[in-house]
Structures are given as C-alpha cells and as structure tokens.
Design a protein that fits this description.
Elements (H helix, E strand, L loop, with lengths): L2 E6 L6 H14 L4 E5 L2 E2 L8 H9 L3 E4 L2 E2 L5 H8 L6 H12 L4 E9 L11 H8 L3 E5 L5 H14 L4 E9 L5 H14 L3 E6 L7 H7 L14 H8 L6
Parallel strand pairs: 1-6, 1-7, 2-4, 2-6, 3-5, 7-8, 8-9
Helix pairs in contact: 1-2, 1-8, 4-5, 6-7
Length: about 240
C-alpha cells in the first residue's frame, strides 16, 4: 500500500486525528510518510490546516495541500464563493502519485465524507481513489447513526470497484454507552471490512510525544499497530438483553 485514501462517514468523526495516528505508527515502523489534504476549507492563508496538524502530532511527515479555501464549507461551494479554481480528482490523484514516488506511504485525507463534491462537475474523493486504485480507510463515529453511514460509504466504494481497507473508530469514549458497545461488533459486519482501530476520545489533545507513543496501540497490525480488534470487541461486549 503506497497510497491510502482516508475518508470519514461525515464531518467531525476524527478523520484528521486518525490520519495522524496512521502516520505516527508508520513512522515508528521506519516508513517515510507524506500526508496530502485534498481540499482544505475553513482556514486563512497563514493558518495551519489539517495536514499541518497531522505533522504536529505525528512527526516528520511531508505535509501538502492540493487547494485551500477560507470558508468552512464543502470544497465545491467554498471554491465557488471564494472565486478560486476548484480542486479536481485528477489533481488530487496526480499530487498523490508524485508524493508516492518519493515516500513509502502517502495518506490522502478527504474533506468530510466520501461523496462531498470537489467541483461543479461532481468530482469527489471517491473519484480520486478510483484514479489511484488506492484502498480506502473509513473513519467512523462510535455512537448512534454510525452503522447506516458506514454501510452507505462501504457500498459506494464497492459500487466503484474499490474495497474498503477497514474501519477505524475516530473517537472512542472513556465510558461507552450501549450503542457504542454494540456498534463495535456491528461495524465490521455492515462495512464488510475489518475493524482496524479505535482512537481514545481526546487523543488529538495529547502532547505530540504522548500521541506518537500511543498511536500504535490504537491501530491494528495492518496499520503498523498492535491493537487487537477481537480482544477490544470482547472487552466491550454488552450483557445480553434480559
């Protein structure tokens, strides 16, 4: 896997922190890593974006953006309102391919969910993944609503001939409720792909050194980690209903 595309089932599900954890674990395993943000929205010209946040948390990664827009909107809308050129799936794929020529691993982070539009032609992160022929890691939330969103994302990937690499829970609560505990077992079933990690709630607020040390323990071996999905699922399994 030279290029991995990372998408979320929606906004604020922990996509950037998960990207940072994957990068940190890969760096710890001795791989060179680049992070590419397909379309950064909601930040000014001199402000750090998601790629910079990944670098802050993970360490020595090459951090790049394809495009940046000031308003926190879907990329196509943000581009139109700013009067700037929209980003296209072709540009994202070409930028990722260029980074892949110089790095062991390139992580392409989307904006929002899989089908958020980049441009007025309807181009999406899914189109970029198709061009790259890259596996797609799905970052999901832990609570109610996540099963539907995760299954829809996985179905869309498969309809395009792309298999989801797996699912990572972007923020696992310290005291998970019944829905979260049930979802641990149900997420891989609805996705048709393995559960590859669960990041603790608040991981992104850790000092970088603590984040880098902890990252491998939040991710499965397929992502250069030591996290055990079977043990995690068994530990959080709810008691049977009366």
């Amino acid at each position: 896997m030279t290029v991995v595309v990372i998408t979320g089932t929606g906004t604020e599900v922990g996509k950037t922190v998960t990207t940072a954890a994957v990068a940190a674990a890969a760096l710890r395993a001795g791989r060179s890593v680049a992070v590419l943000k397909a379309a950064q929205t909601g930040v000014g010209p001199a402000e750090p974006g998601d790629a910079a946040e990944v670098a802050r948390l993970a360490g020595a990664v090459t951090a790049k953006e394809v495009a940046r827009y000031p308003e926190a909107l879907a990329p196509a809308t943000a581009a139109r309102r700013s009067g700037r050129e929209p980003v296209s799936p072709r540009q994202v794929a070409e930028a990722a391919a260029a980074l892949a020529a110089e790095h062991d691993l390139v992580l392409v982070e989307g904006a929002g969910g899989l089908l958020v539009r980049f441009d007025e032609k309807g181009g999406t992160l899914a189109d970029a993944a198709e061009r790259l022929g890259a596996p797609v890691l799905v970052v999901a939330s832990a609570g109610l609503g996540t099963l539907n969103a995760t299954e829809l994302t996985a179905r869309e990937l498969r309809s395009r001939g792309l298999d989801p690499l797996g699912v990572v829970v972007g923020s696992w609560p310290a005291e998970p409720g019944l829905a979260c505990r049930c979802n641990v077992a149900d997420l891989p079933e609805v996705a048709g792909a393995p559960l590859l990690g669960a990041l603790p709630d608040g991981a992104g607020a850790l000092p970088p050194a603590a984040f880098r040390a902890g990252a491998p323990g939040w991710l499965a071996p397929g992502l250069h980690g030591t996290w055990d999905a079977e043990a995690f699922t068994a530990r959080h399994a709810p008691e049977p209903a009366a």
